Every structure is written in C-alpha cells, then in structure tokens.
Amino acid sequence: MQRITNCLLVEGDHVLVLQKPSRGWWVAPGGKMESGESVREAAIREFREETGLKVKQVRIRGIFTVLVKREEEVISEWMMFTFEASSHEGELLTTSPEGDLAWKTIDETNQLPMAKGDRFIFEHILHHEGVLYGTFEYTEEYELLNYRLENDGFNGEVRS
Q1: How many CA atoms, within 13 angstroms, populate the side-chain half-sphere of residue 121?
Q2: First and final CA of the chain: distance in angstroms?
Q3: If we measure between CA atoms, which residue out of 58, 34, 32 comes closest to residue 44?
Q4: Contact call for residues 92 and 49 (beta carbons, < 8 A)
Q5: What's the Cα-to-Cα distance from 156 to each of 50, 113, 146, 147, 152, rounded to whole Å?
Q6: Which of 48, 76, 83, 157 could in theory staple to 7 by disulfide, Cβ–Cβ 3.0 to 4.6 A?
Q7: Are the C-beta atoms of 34 and 111 separated by less than 8 Å?
Q8: pTM score, two decimals?
Q9: Distances from the Cα of 115 to the Cαs of 27, 50, 57, in angstroms?
C-alpha cells in the first residue's frame, strides 16, 4: 500500500493548484512518502519539490483510502493524507516537473477538471472546517464507483 501526501495552499481567495499532463486534471501538489518521513514532513517536501515554495501553517484536513478496482478485484490501494497551508515562503517555480502550476480563485476551482473524489476534498477544504475522512473507489479509468465520507456530523455516500 502506498502512502501519498498532498497540500492545498490557500491564501485569501486563491489556491495554488497543479495540472497533471496525463489527464489534464487539476490536483493539490503532492506525492509519495519516503521511508521514515512523517506525513507532515512528506507533504511539505513534496509541495516544495513540485512548486518551489515552502508551505507554512500546515494542518491536516483529510485522511482517505483510495481503491482502484477491476470489476470486483482491488488492483491498487493507497492512503492519502491531505493538508492545508495558509502561507508560504520562496518563489514559485516557472516550470514544475509535475505539470502546470496556477493560482486559481476558490470559485474557479469548481470548474476545473479533476477526479470526482478530489472535488469533494477541495469542497471540504475550501468551504468547511475540521478533518474529512473517507474512502473512494474508482475504476482503472478513475471513474468514481462509490465513496464514503465522514466529518464531524456529516456523513455522505453515493453509489453509481
């Protein structure tokens, strides 16, 4: 099982996001944890590698299990730890090794192409408090099959 961290940098009404070239989807910058790292250390390191920025005031906002299925068989599973940062230092890379970086308004994020599960995560971080917990099940083509989410009094579920 892989461990993934990512982080949304939210400053005022803008969010720094990364567009991955493979699908054209926008994501929170992040990546795989290295052996011995804490999830927080990994999120800060990955964010810096992908953006050039050192995030500050970093706090956990989501913990998720992601399953990729072929019919009923789980072919890939990972844990994803999502953080939010509210300030940074350093200069933004002109070219990221992972895709295109852009500052988008919070309202613009609603229109960006992204994985359906990420849309729930962005919605939570940008409009709600607390930590969101959940499980997302996808097909190999990353079509959302179903999900479960919990956050201080909110429970949601959908099945396609």
Answers
A1: 28
A2: 25
A3: 58
A4: no
A5: 32, 22, 10, 8, 12
A6: 83
A7: no
A8: 0.93
A9: 8, 19, 26
Q: How far apart are CA 40 and CA 82, in angstroms?
A: 9
pLDDT, position 88 = 98
| pLDDT, one tens digit for every residue, the chain (160 residues) | 999 999 999 999 999 999 999 999 999 999 999 999 999 999 999 999 999 999 999 999 999 999 999 999 999 999 999 999 999 999 999 999 999 999 999 999 999 999 999 999 999 999 999 999 999 999 999 999 999 999 875 555 444 3
Q: Where are the alpha helices (DSSP H) in the chain?
A: 39-51, 116-127
| Cβ contact 88:53 at 8 Å | yes
What are the residues facing 132 on neighbouring strands? 62
Query: What's the token pair of residue 8?
Result: 């949304």
